[in-house]
Structures are given as structure tokens and as C-alpha cells.
Amino acid sequence: MNKTIKLIIAVAVPLIIGFTSGFFTETGEASWYQSINKPSWNPPNWIFAPVWTTLYVLMGIALFLVWNSNVNTRYKRTAIILFSIQLLLNFFWSLIFFNQQQPGWALVEIITLWIFILLTIFAFAKLSKTAAWLLVPYISWVSFAAILNYTLWKLNS
Asked: What CA–CA distance (Å, rounded) separates 67 from 9?
């Protein structure tokens, strides 16, 4: 498979997962999320789509760099499995938080997600330092999201 096709696939996968999970965000946001108590520092709703789109593209480029690397297959397989797990967890956070309206369980889930992002960064670093660094904005945003998730849970318990 040539590099261009790999790059397209690698970027498309997180974008498709992200846009699909965005469906749960939109449906939950339209009603429940608008009615709950939020902290004064809660970002405006319009910021989430461009931030997540950018993060998904960076994730896809990082995945491409790992997938395309000429490194031990075992390390590459482990890194891609960790990436897949964190992407699946990313998808389920929106479902739990917005669709199921369960910020407490979403907090448990986002902490698990954060751990798997960190493991993915470490695994990617063995194959491509650039790929690992491309995930730093992602873990930073998820760190902020976890703090926001916790605050929303506490404000609405």
C-alpha cells in the first residue's frame, strides 16, 4: 500500500470515529447539556468542533507515522492496538456523557482514556518521536476535559 493511501486511511479513521461520536454530543447537547449547571470557565460550544477536528487530524498523522515506520512489527502492533483502544474509549465518552447523561461514569471513562492516551504516547515514542509529540495536544485537551467533566459532575450531583 502506498504512503498516500496509508495517510488518507490513518487520518480518516479518527475523523470518522470523531464525527460519529459527535452525533451523541449533538443530541445530548441540544437538551440535557444546555440545562445543567456549568462553571464560569466552561468553553463556548462552538470551540469544540474545530478543536476536536484538529486533534483527530493530528492523531491520524501520528498513526500514519507509526504505521509507516520501518521498526519492529511487535512494537508497531502494540502501538496501534493501544491507539485503537484509546480511540474506542474516546468514542464511548461522548456516548456515556451526552447520550446516557452520566457524568460520574464519564469521569471514570475519561480517566481510563487519559491513561490509554499516555500509554499510546509512550508506545509511539519508541517508533516515532514526532508521532508521540503530535499526541501531546490531545492529552492536554483530554486533561482539561477531565477537569471539566469532574466539575460538571460535582455541580450537578
From this structure: 11
The end-to-end CA distance of the chain, in Å, is 51
For cell 484538529, what's the residue?
A: 54
Contacts 24+ apart (CB under 8 A), 17-24: 17/56, 17/87, 17/88, 17/90, 17/91, 18/52, 18/53, 18/56, 18/90, 20/91, 21/90, 21/91, 21/92, 21/93, 21/94, 21/95, 22/49, 22/52, 22/94, 24/94, 24/95, 24/98, 24/99
Judged on CB neighbours under 10 Å (0-12, 13-18, 19+), 46 is exposed
- Quick one: how far is CA 22 from the chain centroid? 12
User: Of all residues in the chain, what percent carry a pLDDT higher than 90?
Assistant: 83
Higher per-residue pLDDT: 123 or 30? 123
Where do the domains of the chain lie, and which CATH numbers do they carry? 3-155 (1.20.1260.100)
C-alpha cell read off for 64: 500514519
Do residues 135 and 117 touch, judged by C-beta distance below 8 A?
yes
